[in-house]
Amino acid sequence: MQPSSLLSRRRILGAAVAVTAVGLVSPAPAVSYAPRSISLYNTNTGEWLRTVYWADGHYIREAVRDINWILRDHHTDEMRPIDAGVLDVLGLMRERLDISDPFLVVSGYRSPTTNMKMYLHREGVAKHSYHIKGMAVDLRSDRRSLAQVRDAAMSLQCGGVGYYPRAGFVHVDCGPIRHW
Fold first, then answer.
1. Are 137 and 85 in contact (CB under 8 A)?
2. How far is it, in rounded angstroms, from Cα 119 to Cα 127?
3. CA nearest 91: which of 110, 109, 64?
4. Separation of alpha carbons 176 and 107, rounded Å
5. Residues 111 and 133: beta-carbon distance below 8 Å
6. Per-residue DSSP letter, 177
7. Hey, which of 7, 42, 61, 117 has its CA 20 to 30 A from 81?
8. What gap in Å lies between CA 105 and CA 131, rounded to an integer?
């Protein structure tokens, strides 16, 4: 076999491998720099907030601080940073539900002490709840049914979704994808 024909075969084979490899590579998802907003009303304290919490590629510190306050443990006034994943789930749910009215927050962050009291005296409270980690919110909406809120949360496939129609809220968290 002549060196030139061997070189040609290698080029053809190399080109074929390159074309195949390019077809297998999936592009990275584009990051949207569109502002993300949230609107919350804490049913326990009567406080509300409407704010843009993310813009120009970063979270807005003052807005996140205000969200942390609204979602604090209303029993003790303890505040913990709320996981950014929860904020994004709430923002995406707001878009999915096409609402501008605030989510009615039943529970956000819970101190370990508050959570243990609830665990011991109420049915359905997890001993190691994501609320303790600032990774969960229980909520409802005036403009959408509880089933619509649950369906919107489940369609996102972003974490846990609990449906509590008798208690009047939907639990959303940014833990593993699951539902109950």
1. no
2. 6
3. 64
4. 20
5. no
6. S
7. 117
8. 13
In tens, the pLDDT along 126-135 reads 999 999 999 9
pTM: 0.80
Concatenating the DSSP letter of every residue in 30-78 gives PPP-S-EEEEEEETTT--EEEEEEEETTEE-HHHHHHHHHHTS-TTT--
Residue 103 and residue 39 in contact, taking contact as beta carbons nearer than 8 Å: yes
Residue 28: count other Cβ atoms within 10 Å of its Cβ.
Answer: 6
Mean pLDDT computed over 18-37:
59
Burial class, 4, CB count within 10 angstroms (exposed 0-12 / middle 13-18 / buried 19+): exposed
